[in-house]
């Protein structure tokens, strides 16, 4: 008899059999590659549901698709709590922060955006 485990459970066990439900993965930048098993910097012990992960991925993709945000989109921390999205990080201007919040708010499934964005006046 063969034993088949969900891929997410196999990925968790491959990293030392950390105790986690198969449908819950650590927070972090969502990508199309295998899920990140370690929480993103500053988000230790925050875990998201699969629906929240999909929302995070959709918001990140929307930010990356916006030419004025593409360079900084990967530096932003994105969290989802139900249908509320939180954006954290440093942007170059208040206009860029407003654009990031506007783009995130237009993603299907997002009902509220909380911007916790700081301005990097030096404009790296």
SSE string: HEEHHEEHE
Mean pLDDT: 74
Fraction in beta strands: 15-25%
Number of domains: 1
The assigned structural class equals alpha+beta
Q: What topology, given as strand order, has the largest sheet?
A: 3-4-5
How far apart the termini lie comes to 58 Å
Query: What is the approximate shape?
Result: globular
What would CATH call the architecture? 2-Layer Sandwich
- Give Rg in angstroms: 16 Å
Secondary structure tally: strands: 5
- The fold-level CATH name is GMP Synthetase, Chain A, domain 3
- Count of DSSP helices? 4
Helix content: 25-40%
Main β sheet profile: 3 strands, mixed
User: What is the highest CATH level, the class?
Assistant: Alpha Beta
- Stretches where pLDDT is under 50 for at least 5 consecutive residues are 1-41
Which short descriptors sum up this protein?
about 120 residues; alpha+beta; GMP Synthetase, Chain A, domain 3; three-stranded mixed beta sheet; two-stranded antiparallel sheet; about 30% helix; globular
């Amino acid at each position: 008899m063969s034993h088949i485990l969900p891929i997410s459970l196999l990925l968790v066990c491959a990293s030392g059999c950390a105790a986690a439900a198969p449908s819950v993965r650590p927070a972090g930048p969502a990508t199309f590659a295998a899920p990140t098993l370690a929480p993103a910097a500053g988000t230790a012990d925050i875990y998201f549901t699969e629906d929240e992960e999909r929302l995070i991925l959709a918001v990140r993709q929307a930010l990356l698709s916006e030419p004025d945000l593409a360079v900084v989109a990967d530096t932003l921390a994105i969290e989802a709590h139900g249908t509320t999205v939180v954006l954290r990080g440093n942007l170059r201007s208040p206009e860029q922060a407003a654009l990031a919040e506007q783009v995130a708010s237009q993603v299907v499934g997002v009902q509220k955006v909380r911007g916790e964005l700081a301005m990097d006046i030096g404009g790296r």
